Amino acid sequence: MKHISVIVPSGNSIVDTIIAPFNMLKMANSHFKRINGLARRPFKVDLVGLSRKPVLYQGLFSVRPTATIDDLPKTDLIVISPISGDLDEEIQNNMDFVEWIKTQRIENGSELASLCKGAFLLAETGLVNGKSCATHWTAHEIFKRKYPSVNLIPEKIICEDNGIYSSGGAYSILNFTLYLIERYFGRETAIWCSKVSEIAFDRLSQSEFIIFSGQKDHSDEAIKQAQLHIENNYRDKLVVDEIAQMVHLNARSFLRRFKKATSNTPLEYIQRVKVEAAKKRLESSTKTILEIMYDIGYNDEKAFRSTFRKYSGLSPKEYQRKYNREMAYAQAE
Asked: Among residues 72, 124, 120, which one has the least CA distance to residue 99?
């Protein structure tokens, strides 16, 4: 019998992100046994802690591990549950897990699947240096600063690199768990779980959920001034060289410092501010796509649509249909 470990982190986590994947994997395990006429389930699924003592989350919910890392000399898949709160502190709370994950991968070839900010524990192992990884979009900037050797894939809900899987985050972990179920139990079982649980199947991008607020958690005051100028004047025609002059930097230094501080080039930053403004209008306004395009300073419809899709994962019309309240009500009638 093969084995799946769902980690029960020490410290802070969100209980749903532990229990939901655990229950879905057990559901898949039972269904696979039933449809294939097996004498027993193909996997043993455990909630794995550092001890068997219940772990209390949010002062309200406790999870009792069914096994500990010391009980498991070998496991086939480790589902790395998210941590939350002070990430540096929570990483330290779970360093025994980090070492165990690393040992299981190196010595036993275990596959790894990080959920949401579980990617921080995965990255601590060093096993994804030079590899691709996904995490929740709210943690992108701190992840990139903390793990520069990891190839963060910002737009992905699901990322796979040679038996190491990672997911975007929040309740997209349900989509990610379906993905794992398909990998381990087959598409028929995954579709069955999708229908029974009423979870959308084959959703792979988190771009449409990202809210761009600008990366200002840095100490470069000249670049902060440039960011504020862009955010306050995005409707105007902005010229990067002129912004550099405004903050008393030559073009080369400005580009280098802007990219270092914000993880975006100035042009990317301008585009993302414009797209975020367009998204807000599409969500609440009855204006046409072209009117909104002009409002945010675009004159080229093709360029606007291309840029909008690049950063949102949807066309402007698709986004409006999905998130505009009046249009959503009209479609429901």
From this structure: 124
